Here is the input.
Amino acid sequence: MRWQRTGPPRWLAGRCAAFVLTLFAVITLNFALPRMMPGDPITALQDPESSLYVSDQASRAALSHYYGLDQSLIVQYGRYLRGLATGDLGWSIRLNAPVSLLIQHRILWTVLLIFPAMLAASLVSMVAGLHAGWHRGSPLDRGLIVLFAGIRTLPAFFLGVLALLLFSVRLGWFPLAGAQTPFAHYRSPWGALADLLHHWALPALVLTIEMLGGQFLLMRNSVISVLGDDFMLVAKAKGLSDRSLKYRHALRNALLPFVTVLSIQLGFAVTGSIFVEAVFAYPGMGTLAFQAVSARDYPVLQGVFLVFTVSVLTANLIADLAYARLDPRVRTR
Amino acid sequence: METHESTDCKRGPERPSTDGAVAHRSLLAVRELSVRYRLPNDLMLPALRGVTFELGRGDTLGVIGESGSGKTTLALALLGLVPTAEVEGVVEFGGTPLPLRDDRAMNRFRWSQIALVAQASGTGFDPVQRVGDQLIEPLQERRGLRRDAARERALRAWDEVGLPAQRFGHYPHQLSGGEKRRAMLAMALAGAPALLILDEPTSGLDSFTRVAILDLLRRLHAEHDLAMLVISHNPDDVRQLAQRALVLYAGRAVEVGEAHDVIESPRHPYTWGLVNAYPTMTRSKDLWGIRGEAPDPMCPPSGCAFAPRCTQTIDRCQAEIPALMPQLDRLVACHLGGLRLLLEARRLSKTFRDGPGPPVQAVQDASLHLGEGEVVAVVGQTGSGKTTLARMIVGLLEPDRGDVQLQGQPLHSLRGEARRAARRLLQFIFQDPYEALSPRLTALELVREPLDIQRIGNRAERDETARAALAAARLPTTREFLAKRVHELSGGQLQRIAIARALVVRPKVIVADEPTSMLDPSEQARVLRLLKDLQNDHGTALLLVSHDLPLVRKVADRVIVMEHGRIVEAGPSEQVVSEPRHPYTRRLLVAAAGARSQALRANGRAAPETVEAEAADDRLPAWKPPGSGREIQAGAAAEE
Here is the structure.
């Protein structure tokens, strides 16, 4: 029933251009910020007050030369960009390994944690929010609000520690740390998968719960505001069943703001994952970042931040595309 | 407006009246319907109080009222769409009571029996679904049609409201306001309902689209056996679409009757104010809003809800809620039976025999009446007898035959105290303030004098009242000004003093004989506006005697045209000006138009007139072409 085909939409080109521009700004910031901050390890190497001070003049110069600090900022920036283009994110000071390789090893674990958690949280909050909003003011609604608002006030690390204490220490249902049983030999790939899921379940659950509160409240508000719209009254005056009203009209429209905020939520999910991974000693990007912070491992931090920001940006772009799928007003202007 | 006579519903005796309907013809019977919204703080907000009416099959009823009068609540309540409200009363549809409080059960009636064309058709469609799909939706779900059959049926309705088929698959935001309105109508029609509820069918549309929608609605009503409930704040919508009209104020029906009659000659003071506040109702008159504010629904007045804004209240109005009672041709909820007849002159005649020549028949058989808050203009050239008529009406001249009734009392046979009381109710403003105002008195004394004569209040109170009256007449109240005498004041200021003097005793009727003819055009406009403004505020009836038809039509509700002592034409000013019936009226209008173009040729300068001569009309009237933006603005400003 398509009556018109819209050509290559102009808004899409606009969104992509904005994406590229923001990406460039982010990359530049990522270069500039560490150089503006006091207390990086290279400075520490040169600082006689610091414990890391390298007293040998020649070594200091060699280090500076190695990290390119004896060059002008423009040259450093050029090298940085060239490095990025070839996938070179620098060299970890702490682990003495290329940052890109470190990230490569870790990123899958984090993706494994964040995406299922976000998906689960979105689905649960969508259903719960729709019903709470639909039955606004009912005991169900009030109960759900208290529950989710309560969850929302708990910080991720607290929730994580709580879950560890209860399920791993007290009940012993789940392992205490890591993503795999170390030095284990599996008889089949299924055994490996089971072990993986066993380790994965608790941190994923905590991260899900962490995201649930905000998403639920958002969905509920979004539903309530849609229910007050004129078209809902008109639809009701058509004598449609509650099912049609709820799913075809209320849900579809309430999803619009929800999708927008979901991409912003990804940023929070990344932060949440740093805490959750730290608590569960899960070998993802979060732990990498966490350890890099304690060791002032700036090249690693820089790399991790770059990956995080680029993924949030990409999520925004995807959300924009999804929004256009859902809202014809954006698509067919 | 001419077209509606032909296409508008047949007005016949077989149509049921509001109270005693013929049972088999009755489609909708609303009895004592009350709706109270429950607020979040658990207070109850009454929106509709005991509304009763009936609607036959194929009949049309218009519901008129300001925003907040309960119109939309009525529409929604009939469909059981007021979930947060307490609904009392009975609504019968096709002889069986509607399950208003049972949301599920109401679904059987919604759309398929009673369809709603909601007020907000701009936002009435789900923005993320194609409009066509939204038409198909109920056909599939409610009628159980297959998709292609539903589509075919929906497209038929789509075609019927005059929308092109390629628009069917568009999204709501791709349609214009008028198209959305039509699509909304198509969606309602697709269910083949017996009753169509139209909530503000034309609000927010430009006038071309509005006319097209009204035409479409009339056509649909004629072609289908469709009863319509037209809800609008615009009386003209109702006049064009409905046979009968019900006027709502603060949730109560205050007037019910034939739509045309209710709007053309309102009987309830509120209807009167509402109709006069509408630009579409008149092309010549300025707009005057209803004074005061609509009541706060949380604490409505104890008696009649309109009493605080009404100009004719009696004690009972504050104490008791008036019931809807039959008054001649309609139902009116007013303790006074609607707008009071303030003054009635019956068959007045006067012949002057004291001159040297033959007796002059100055006025013959002239009858007129003046209702509460009404402005009536008596127009005619010099010697037409209008001044004689005015003087008889105020009792300055004894008629040979006929009588004048002031609030039901015969004015000319009153004596003593009763006569003085009647005098207070009836004030006269003379043509020439230089002659009418005593040169001995100061401005303050001039205005205070009627109070002195009527012995109202003590000295200090009278001074205070007089000062207030001067201020109301937009005159300064400085000590210097109050001490000025007639020769120190301009013509415009003097005429304003005369107006303040007339108003200071709070009369019910003011008769003004050429009150602006001595003034230059700009002062003339200002004084006339002031007079109308004060009249509007006080609810005073105004009889305006003038030779200047184009001028008085700006303020007059009705115009009476006199020639040679006889009334030759009378009617609503709009009608008299746009469709004059009597040749003399036509001549008056042509002469005025001629004088205007002449005066314009003379570079817009007009000599101040001293003597009313044969060519009484050769003056540049101080009015602008009707409908110019400035006037509307000024009208709005005056409303404030």
Observations:
- The radius of gyration of chain B is 28 Å.
